[in-house]
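Recall from the previous lesson that a structure prediction takes nothing but the amino acid sequence as input. Here we apply that procedure to cysteine-S-conjugate beta-lyase from Pelotomaculum isophthalicicum JI. The sequence below is the only information supplied.
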Amino acid sequence: MKFGTRILHTGNEIEQTTGAVSIPVYHASTFKQNKVDEFGPYEYARSGNPTRDALEAIIAKLEGGVRGFAFSSGIAAISSVLLLFSPGDHIVVCEDVYGGTYRVLTGLFNRLGIEVTFVDFTDPAKVKTALRRNTKGVYAETPSNPLLKITDLRAVSAIARENGLLSMVDNTFLTPYLQRPIELGIDIVIHSATKYLGGHSDLLAGLVVAADKQTAERINYIQYSFGAVLGPQDCWLLMRGIKTLKARMDMHQSGARKLAEWLAGCPEVKEVYFPGLPDHPGKEIHDSQADGPGGIVSFRMQTEEMAKRLLENVKLSALAVSLGAVESIISYPVTMSHAGMHPDHRVRTGVTGDLIRLSVGLEDPGDLIEDLAAAIS
Ligand SMILES: *Cc1c(COP(=O)(O)O)cnc(C)c1O
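The prediction returns the following tokens.
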């Protein structure tokens, strides 16, 4: 079956005892046992809840892994995965990693003795060069945020395999509809489900999928012990969001393509970053591992003043952090999503004052273009 069908028929769409076609929200923190030594399928909601179970099974199926895990936010999911590592371990991470991931690695996990090196992942040779005796993991995002740089996931998973490392990919930008890293050899897929999977700017959530049983068991232990689980109400909202993922992503992509092409022809715009443009660096690799460009367009104005003026005058796109929602969201990475990054690191990775990131929503693309044109002039 094609993804569009599978997304609605994962085997978890019907509640078995009543036949309800929407999985109910089980607001229960604990589950009664019949005898002291006789356990049912559920005990205490931190270890499992029927609503969360359905969501976790759905994301595992869509990513092609063995087991899924739902967390209270994307960063809770990322932090829980990072708890797989121990003091003295070293991880190689893409240098343009999500700002919050950079923050938790450099502000928190480094205190716990987990070492990190940030590297340009567009060149797999640089990843290899960064490996040390104590390297235990590699962590990638592709397309990256906010410049949509492309990492060759097959190459990264091969490096991980050859060196006995755990490979992790944050797949937030593309979702399993457009990219399935486990099929490319990656061990762990992570999502901020706050973005496209939820899709409506109405919840915070994180998801993790493990490719193999042993990794799944270790993550299960962390999820239960650390306890950053997603509540049943948000699990339900997220399942509802996922039902329309394909329909939304198709519209996000076609709108983003129109906007990217229009921006590329604007004299006030210096550069456009969108994996659907023919000259986007790494496009060939992207097309070999993903089924579409996604819905994020970043662009550089001729000057920082022009970027600020645009952001102050744009009306249809909300000036906000976050992305992947039905409404367009425009942001200024340097003071917003990437504010937590060291200024030198920002400059090195191209996050400067002339840069704007646009998450293209489901509005009519013609209206979005008209609004941007008015804001630019
Ligand atoms: C937003 C985001 C996160 C963090 O997720 P939260 O749900 O905000 O905690 C992680 N990675 C990427 C790529 C993101 O866009």
